[in-house]
Amino acid sequence: MTTALGLRIKLILVLLGGCLLALVPALIVGALVIEKIRDQLSVDYARTQTQLIAQRVGARIAERRQLAHQLAAQPATSAWLSVENPASANAFVDDATRLADDFDADKVFAYRIADRSFYLIDSNHRLDRTAPLSPLYQANPLNTEDAWLFGLLDTSTGLRIQVIFDAHLERQMIWVSLPVRHDGRLVGEVGSGIELPGFIEEMLRERRPGITPMLIDPQGNLRAHPDASLVADRINPGYFDFSRNLYSLVAPAQRDLLSSAIIEARRYPGSQVVRALNLQSRDQLISVQSLPELNWLMVSAVAPQELSDADAPWFAYLSLATLSILAMLLIMLGWLADRLLLNPLRLLTASAQSIARGEFRANAPLKRRDELGQLSQAFAQMAERIRNHTSDLERTVSERTQALEHANEEMRRAHRTLDESIGYARLLQRAILPTRLEQRVNGAVLWRPRERVGGDFYLLHEEPGGCLVGIIDCAGHGVPGAMMTMLARGLLDRAILLAGGADPASVLTETDRLVRLLLDERRGLATEMDVALLWLDANGHSGRFAGAKLDLFLERDGQVIRYRGGRRPLGHRRRGEYANVELSFPARARCYMTSDGLLDQAGGEEGFGFGIKRFVALLEHASTLPLPQSLTYCARAIDDYRAGLAQRDDITLLVIESGDISPR
């Protein structure tokens, strides 16, 4: 008779078989996971390395910036640079030497405008107080090597950082400087210098195998590299040396990827842009971060395989430790299975066999504190807990349902309040719109906010000699845009009062000044305004146009002429220039002004914007219709083109037909 295998042996065989079956897929999955982890760690390490070196550069430049601020603020500095005399010279030398020691600066310089003298204090040019103070050299505006001094002083409004090859010192230098004024007059420049080779060596220290840190300028020239033969160390900003350029190290097919990484890093300073490239015939990950202080970029190239090779001993030890732990775990699991599973099963079997023999007293162990008794007690307790939990759950669901209904009611009340507020805001916004446009200037307007209120509005201002009409597209839409329209209307009314409606360009310039005066401390907010203004003389046959990023479209005899406005909106970070365009109208002509919400509206088969070309064609077709019907035709054409797509922005279209505009 064949002896059946016991449960103990079967369990051991199952555990062994399961380990063997799981070993192969575990190895495959483990290899894939390790590969993914290695790649991710390589990316993270490249970013960390790039960020670390960028922070070192920023810290060193910040120190030199503070040195320049303190030196420029010393009374002796401005006194000596304005009028040269021994007492102020000695005081300047004391201040410069003290600050150089405090900030551990190798070089401190001063430049006097009056005589173009350049003074340098360093280990080789320490000023001797027993001898007359003498400059290192006299700057010459005709020498290209001195152009950085004159360039700084031409725009002497703040801190300047220059990275150049200094022909006088025959070194690649970083000059950090500030202008100095005396009694409001620009008298010179002071600051400190950093020798670039030593600075780069300090910034790129602690390099581990598999990591190649580099510094490049915006043209891609290598300014720092572990291989000194690749470094372009004698070129000034703006030059391009392909033989010592990062692009020459990248496969030609991937140079566009490198260019995109450089552009993105410069666009978002402080962020690290990672790309996978073939660099010097090796697959590597590069991390690029902009260094705004130097107008350079930090690049870290990581070779994941070399990093793995460098960590191979550590990985072998980790693998050995993991296998040891796994073996110990299997042994522990076998022991626990025997103690916690097999022994209770044997007792349960004995009790079941006793009951099967009719020994009802065998039920007694169920009341004792053995495994089977605990299981019976646990089951009873579990049933009781389930009953209790069910009751508690029903009560909790009821309470939560009531709370949810209450919350929904609160949300409905809040929605009603918000809806009433927006309705009131719409009423207020419509109150600033002209009500006599059609009767006063023979015009019509299509005004479609994207939401119930918007950032577009139009205006009409009447004067004895004519009237001024226009449209204004404020930044934003919805409630913020509507509030901007209130502010914009007030500023335009003030500007018209100061400049007069007959000069639209002056109105735009004055409004831009008022915007900057009122909102200059809120540069983080979108406060720009696109404006188109048209002055119509009282005879209705001549006018004057000026725009800020909005154009005028003049239709005469079925032909549409586009008159462009200024390139920049009002409130732009750079001031715009606005000029009047003199216009004359024949017996019949129409002037159209529209916000960019119409031109940018997506639609059509490809989902492209409406665009200028399609808009001009629309005006040519509408020219044969009477004024009200032509505006209706334009609105229908826009809706047809949109074909169910959401309105992207606020839309305003204003049309004026030439003719007598005398008061009616």
Structure description:
The chain has helices at 7-73, 75-82, 86-102, 147-154, 196-203, 246-249, 255-267, 304-310, 312-356, 371-431, 437-441, 478-499, 504-519, 596-599, 611-622, 627-642; strands at residues 107-112, 117-121, 137-138, 160-166, 171-182, 185-195, 211-216, 222-224, 273-279, 282-291, 296-302, 443-448, 456-463, 466-474, 529-537, 542-548, 552-556, 559-563, 581-584, 590-594, 602-603, 608-609, 651-657. It has 664 residues and is an alpha+beta fold. The chain has 16 helices and 23 strands. The strands form five sheets. It has a six-stranded antiparallel sheet, with helices on both faces. Strands 8-7-11-10-9 form a five-stranded antiparallel sheet, sandwiched between helices. α1 runs antiparallel to α9 (312-356) and α2 packs across α3. β13 (456-463) and β14 form a beta hairpin. The longest helix is centred in the N-terminal third of the chain and has 67 residues, at 7-73. The chain crosses the membrane at residues 314-337. It is found in: Cell membrane.
Rg over C-alpha atoms, rounded to the nearest angstrom: 40 Å
What overall form do the CA principal axes indicate?
A: flat
> Can you tell me the CATH architecture of the largest domain?
4-Layer Sandwich
Cα-to-Cα separation, first versus last residue: 123 Å
Largest sheet: 6 strands, antiparallel
Cross-sheet strand order for the largest sheet: 3-2-1-6-5-4
Helix content: 40-55%
Contiguous helical run count: 16
Summed up, the domain count is 4
The total beta strand count reads 23
Taken as a percent bin, the fraction of beta residues is: 15-25%
CATH topology of the largest domain: Phosphatase 2c, domain 1
**CATH class designation of the largest domain:** Alpha Beta
Low-confidence stretches: none
What is the residue-averaged pLDDT? 80
CATH superfamily of the largest domain: PPM-type phosphatase domain
Structural class: alpha+beta
